[in-house]
Amino acid sequence: MFSFYTFAFVICTTFVSHSDADSIVYSITLQQYSKVEIGWTQDQVTQLIGSQGNVISQSGYGGPNTTTLQYTGSQSSSSATFYFQGSILSSKSQNGLDTTVCQITQQQYNQLEMGWTRDEVTNLVGNPGIVTSESGTGNTTNIAVQYQVAGSSYGRVSLGFLGGKLNIKYGYGFASIVNNKISFQQFSIVQVGWTQQHVIQFLGCPGTIISQSGTQDLSSQFTTIQYSGSQSSFPSIAFNFQGGKLYRKDQYEIDPRVYTMTQQQFLSIQIGWTRNQITNFVGSQGRVISEYVSGSANYTTLRYTAPGNIYGSADLNFVNETLSSKTGNGYFLNSNTINLQQYTSIQIGWTQQQVVQLLGGSGNLISQSGTVGSPNELTTIQYTGSQSSSSSATFYFQGSKLYRKSQNGLDTTVCPITQQQYNQLVIGWTRDEVTNLVGNPGIVTSESGTGNTTNINVQYQPDGKSSGSVSLGFEGGKLRSRSEYGFK
Ligand SMILES: *[C@@H]1O[C@H](CO)[C@@H](O)[C@H](O)[C@H]1NC(C)=O
Ligand SMILES: *[C@@H]1O[C@H](CO)[C@@H](O)[C@H](O)[C@H]1NC(C)=O
Ligand SMILES: *[C@@H]1O[C@H](CO)[C@@H](O)[C@H](O)[C@H]1NC(C)=O
Ligand SMILES: *[C@@H]1O[C@H](CO)[C@@H](O)[C@H](O)[C@H]1NC(C)=O
Ligand SMILES: *[C@@H]1O[C@H](CO)[C@@H](O)[C@H](O)[C@H]1NC(C)=O
Fold first, then answer.
1. Which residues of 228-262 are buried (b: 16+ CB within 10 A; e: fewer)?
2. CA neighbor of 45 nearest in space, from 78, 92, 77, 79
3. Is position 349 within any domain?
């Protein structure tokens, strides 16, 4: 008997002290959350709640620091977040603190009109919904209200009110999605510039309004209507209207044809080529995944896939029918590799040629835009890490000069930081001060600029945790931002 109690006691104390050392939990109730008002000081907030909260992120770029604090609700997945500018609360949000079930039907959602007051909405729906975030005061008050879609386990509706008036509605998970089907041919006939009424009449079904924003005045309204392809129950078609006129259309899976491109063709295509030139060169016209008009220019995105390989696609972006950028992934990548030592020796300011020479290969062209050879040409190339295929290094060039580099997983040193150390960091500290406190320098994951405009990002691993990360941003040698997830 005696030994049993001793045993139980040891287990208990071990458990308690272990969880104490692991992380500090800052708790909040819905009632406390509701009492906190926009405009309060950070001191007022921490006094009311009774603890200081987790500093999820903090930054100070010349102006006043901004700080984001988070507290945990009674269920560990629920939380409240407070955002301060200087020491003044400018917005708050909650996730899961209020567990009231507030439903809305699709019919009610469809009836809501921009410009309605919160009372008008509440009267129609029959309940006030849950306020998930709030910012601003007086006529600039912005609140977000959430409802569950009746009859759907995952459907949600979000409403935004500015100065008391509905100015955005957004929803997903409606049953009507599967009933509004259109064919690829119908999609192709619809032209940018048509009125909303004309489009709906032509398609023969109203679609699902997934979002609408603006004021009561139609000319300021934006509306997005979704449809499914005739073979699909997945919403893969979207029409976007501004002031009642179609300005953009997108589709993902409804073009039944297959358009392929080889890796060699992808590499050969040059920024500045016309759509006709590319169609002739590649042998097919590509799948139009989006088309829109903005101002006097028109924009088109075409997608090609790799021959016989579903893990590769290339997107080509055109402005006025001229190629402005290209992006490849999967199959369109090649196998050049890089190690940490090579990565470290590459310096900001190097030419693209210097980088390619050092690494012995041209890497993967991730994206390219701007006129070739001009100072506004932007090129991003990526190399796979030599030790693991999930590691990589990315180089960003402007006018063929390296201005930023980043790496992911090339440096596998474990660099821990404790929650206590993280809490002690102060915006404005030098890198050396941070390194001295933490006991190790962390891993530099990205770097850009030179001299006093050097920007680096340093990453640490929350001590004793298998996931999570702490990210520190330094500018000109000084700590300018910090953020964490995973201590909780
Ligand atoms: C908000 O209120 C201020 C002062 O009360 C006023 O000057 C401003 O025009 C109002 N803005 C709007 C959008 O109503
Ligand atoms: C696109 O073409 C229109 C007229 O055809 C022209 O006014 C506009 O400047 C062009 N835009 C670009 C970005 O080339
Ligand atoms: C886009 O612009 C180009 C050149 O300005 C023009 O030839 C083409 O017809 C336009 N396409 C659409 C769909 O408006
Ligand atoms: C805010 O930033 C300044 C430097 O810009 C720093 O001295 C001050 O300690 C920072 N405040 C906090 C709470 O980190
Ligand atoms: C950075 O250095 C340049 C030139 O050395 C100088 O003109 C500028 O004032 C410096 N900026 C800061 C923020 O120290």
1. bbeeeeebbbbbbbbeebbbbbbbbebbeeebbbb
2. 92
3. yes
Strand intervals (E) in 337-453: 337-338, 364-369, 378-385, 392-398, 401-408, 416-417, 443-448
Dig out the tokens for 138 from the structure: 């007086």
d(CA 48, ligand 4 centre) in Å: 23
297 close to ligand 2 (CB < 6 Angstrom): yes
- The closest alpha carbon to 114, from 212, 224, 244, belongs to 212
Tell me, yes or no, whether 470 and 422 share the same domain: yes
Q: Compute the radius of gyration of the chain from its Cα atoms.
A: 27
Per-residue pLDDT reduced to its tens digit, 65-111 = 899 999 999 887 899 999 999 999 999 999 999 999 999 999 999 99
Confidence of residue 253 (pLDDT cuts 50, 70, 90): confident
Q: 106 — phi, psi (to 5°)?
A: -65, -35
Q: Which atom of ligand 2 is nearest to the CA of 298?
A: 1
CATH number where 479 lies: 3.30.1450.10
Distance in Å, CA 71 to ligand 4 centroid: 22
Hey, which of 426, 437, 479, 483 would you mutate to test ligand 4's pocket, going by the most ligand atoms within 8 Å of its Cβ?
Answer: 426
Question: If you measure from the C-alpha of residue 255 to the centroid of ligand 3, how many angstroms do you get, rounded to a whole number?
Answer: 21
Q: Which of 351, 354, 454, 448 is nearest to 405 (CA)?
A: 448
Domain of residue 460, residue span: 416-485
Strands (E), 117-254: 130-135, 142-149, 156-162, 165-172, 181-182, 208-213, 222-229, 235-242, 245-251
Among 244, 245, 203, which residue's Cα sits nearest to residue 226? 203
60 lines ligand 4 (CB under 6 A): yes
Confidence of residue 334 (pLDDT cuts 50, 70, 90): low
One domain for residues 160 and 196: no
Residue 458 lies in a domain: yes
Q: Whose CA is nearest to atom 14 of ligand 3?
A: 298
In a domain, 256, yes or no: no
Q: Is residue 257 part of a domain?
A: no
What pLDDT score was predicted for residue 12?
32
Residue appearing with tokens 């459907």: 155
Q: Is the CB of 39 under 6 A from ligand 4?
A: no
Q: Which two tokens stand for residue 202?
A: 């032509």
Nearest CA to ligand 5 atom 2: 452
Average of per-residue pLDDT across 445-463: 93
* Range 140-172 burial, b when 16+ CB lie within 10 A, else e: eebbbbbbbbeeeeebebbbbbeeebbbbbbbb
- Ligand nearest to the CA of residue 139, numbered in listed order: 1
Q: Is the C-beta atom of 207 inside 6 A of ligand 4?
A: no
Question: For atom 13 of ligand 4, which residue has the closest CA?
Answer: 426
Specify the pLDDT at position 7.
36
Of 160 and 373, the structure prediction assigns the larger pLDDT to 160
